[in-house]
Amino acid sequence: MEGKEAIKILGELRTDQVVVTTMSTAKEWPPLSKREDIDLPLFGCMGKASSLGLGIAIGAPDRQVLILDGEGSLLMNLGALVTIGAQAPTNLIHFVFDNSAYDTSGGQPTPGAGQVDFPGLALSAGYKAAHSFDDAAEFRRQLPEILTQNGPTLVALKVEKGWAKASFPARKTPEAMEDMRAALAKSSS
């Protein structure tokens, strides 16, 4: 499936969820976002979206958290799957955009490219559910129901290489973190 189509579907169906992005997704998400105040783009910390997303899910249990991760980033921090499974946040959905390459650093193949079963890893680590999609129409059809299920849930999206063409946005992680803290504090009072 086209990565831009997958992220566009997420943008269309997103309501008030916190969205944590990294690498390729951090480049393509900003124009689609309806709630920049509760987006957390991560730069310079590849592999940490899942850990930060978990912290937000635990700290804001009444708010659904969507992590838009890449397979290269997740491979750098596979232990996060076990930690997420053990903590079992019902409000966390972990999307993994898998194109079998480190696109933002030159397109090198990721370790185990095409062999790693991310849904299987997530389920064995304790996630409640896992899904895999390589077809945008099927992803669009099933996503509304996935968004209503208790997590943690992993959704693997098989996308094409080189899909993220945008530049990294000007809004950086520290500014976004402060905006998100203020927005979440306002909504919880």
Notable characteristics:
189 residues; alpha/beta; Rossmann fold; six-stranded parallel sheet; 41% helix; globular
Summarize the structure.
The chain is 41% helix and 20% strand.
Give the arrangement of secondary structure elements:
Elements: H1 3-13, E1 18-22, H2 23-28, E2 39-42, H3 49-59, E3 65-70, H4 71-75, H5 79-87, E4 92-98, E5 101-102, E6 108-109, H6 118-125, E7 129-133, H7 136-146, E8 153-158, H8 173-188
Protein described:
- The protein has 189 residues and is an alpha/beta fold.
- The chain has one domain (3-188): Thiamin diphosphate (ThDP)-binding fold, Pyr/PP domains (Rossmann fold).
- The chain has helices at 3-13, 23-28, 49-59, 71-75, 79-87, 118-125, 136-146, 173-188, and strands at 18-22, 39-42, 65-70, 92-98, 101-102, 108-109, 129-133, 153-158.
- A hairpin with a 5-residue loop joins strand 5 (101-102) and strand 6.
- Helix 1 (3-13) runs parallel beside helix 7 and helix 3 runs parallel beside helix 5 (79-87).
- The model has no long low-confidence stretch (mean pLDDT 88).
Mean pLDDT: 88
Structural class: alpha/beta
DSSP helix fraction: 40-55%
H and E string: HEHEHEHHEEEHEHEH
Q: Supply the CATH class.
A: Alpha Beta
- Major beta sheet, specifics? 6 strands, parallel
Level-2 CATH architecture: 3-Layer(aba) Sandwich
Looking at this structure, what is the CATH superfamily? Thiamin diphosphate (ThDP)-binding fold, Pyr/PP domains
- Output the strand order for the largest sheet: 2-1-3-4-8-7
Q: Tell me the span between the first and last alpha carbons.
A: 41 Å
